[in-house]
Amino acid sequence: MSSLTDLLQRPGRTPRRRVLSIIGLVLVPLVIAGILVWALWDPSSRLHNVRAAIVNEDKPVTVNGQLVPLGRQLTAGLVSAPGKTETNYDWTITDADDARSGLASGEYVAVVTIPKDFSAAATSISGDKPREAVIDVTTSDAAKLVDGAISQTVANTAASLSGKQLTETYLDNIYVGFNTLGEQIGKASDGASQLADGAGKLSGGLGQVGEGVTQLGTGAGALANGAGQLNTGVGALASGADQLSSGAGQLAQGTGPLAQGAQQLAGGASQLHDGLNALSGGLQGIKQGEAPLRAGLGQTSQLVTGNTAVAGQLGQLAAECATSGASQAFCEQLAGVVGGPSDPTGAIARLAGAEIAIKGNGTAQNPGLAAGVNGLLDGLTKPAAPGQPSALDGLAALATASGQLATGAAGLADGAGKLNTGAAGLAQGAAGLAEGTHKLQTGSSGLADGATKLSTGISQLGEGFTPLTEGATSLEGGAVQLADGLKTAVDQLPSYSKQQREKLSSVVADPIRTGGKENATESLGGALGAQGAPFYAVLALWLGALATFLVLRPLPIGAHGSTRPSPLLALRAFWPGALLGAGQGLLVAAVLAPLLKIDFWPWAGFAAIAMLAGVAFAATNQALGALLGGVGKFISMIVAIVVLASGIIATAPALLQSAVGWMPVGPASDALRAITGDGSPAGSITVLVLWTVGALLVSTFAAARARRKPEPVEARI
Question: Is the pTM of this model over 0.70?
Fold first, then answer.
């Protein structure tokens, strides 16, 4: 202890004053740390002692029929922000004049002015021209250093809360719009799917209709061809009907004489029969009546001559029947009755045979009836040859044949009459047929023209169906793509429940929040509280070391010119300061313990590092004083100012920030923060030890230098 008291010896100092000086040196960092903690510990809990004013000039607006007084809401938010009453200003709602007066006098540390267009600007986000809502924060010239920042922070927090509410409402409407948009797009997707189905059916139907139209066009073409052929056929039919009508008329005209001739033939045949019967009966009296026989032969010749004319007319009628336009069946029936010259059963052949038989043919073989009367008379009873009938028998057969001839002639006359009647009806019908076919020809011509136009129109219709079908197919493809795209959009569009909307609106309106304190004032309290403990400790211990070597001598009395070793001299002056520095570190750690709010063992580590820092700071201040004297004390004071300037805010100049790292205060601060945080203090502790050793080496050098020089006069004062 003698060494310590020796270092404290000054002219005029009593032992009591020396002890009080030692106690004062121990208490210097304790007082500094205590005052800093007392003044800065949890300032947010004392904000209610600070008065501030609110000037609300806002004019409420009406949105969707609802009054929106955002100025009042912000005022209420300021009065209640950030949360607890004791962590907020003592707000006064006043007018602009009182606010100006209060700022000038210092009654209000800050004034928040809400402009008259605040509500209009804040609600403009739902309009075409959105703009920001601005509030004005003015601090008093008499306000303290941090009051303006706190005032701005409190106002910004309240404004942020109001803006967050507006944003939440706006975002909630957007999320509801997402739900509505998703539902509407879903309906549109269903409609597009239905459109695609309908377009597919339309395409298929158009394809079938196109095929039908093609077939219809083919049929219409065939109809046009058939109508043309029909028109041609009807024209030929009309021409044939005209010829038939003409031939039927000629037939009707020709069958009249035929009927008359047939009647005459029938009468002649009947007379022939009667004559042959009479001949047969009168042959017996031929021999007795040659003269009457010759007269009968003359009459017979005349009769035959008339039959020949009738036969000629029948032949002519039969020959002209086919060209008259009469039916084939009628002509065949007429030809069968009339016969030909080679037909022995026909009327012509029979009449001709009768003429030849009676008149002969002018040959020796057939000299005629008159020529053969004598032979007849000779052969009436005599056969021409043995085994043949006699003339009388032949005459009986001829009489029988003439009867058949009379019957046939009567039938021919009856048929000719009917033929005449039928020919007249045929002529009349043929005339009607000709008239009808002409009308049919006119209609078939119109049908052919219409069918041709129909075929052309259907062909054009078929050509039009091709692009229509392609368009329907494209419509189907586009509708399918639209439906798929809308479905994808629906799948990608979010859908929110009411709870999700409220959560998302709250998060998106304030997407980023800092961890830790609930508000700025509480965060400031934390920064000036537990987070500020290393800063308080370093500043207090450095000032304590500075004060220690303002009182203690950096080198012992008698060091100048002393013969003792320099290290011993340096250590003799160091150990009292080191002992005081360690004590100061322990006391500072004890004072900061309530602020740190950590367990015992971490606090013990904090206290040990604080004691080491006190020893290192004592060694450094000893070295500055021993080597530089008063200049060293001035440098130590500057170090304290640098610690103060760089420890309050990180925006201090980079030179000051880097300068701290080259001083012992830097590793001391880092080691203490490592204890209160999650880092390791080992490296910083090593640097503090090196600073201590280095400072002792400098003090040893100063002691060695002092041994070679006499003690300066100012060092004795």
Answer: no
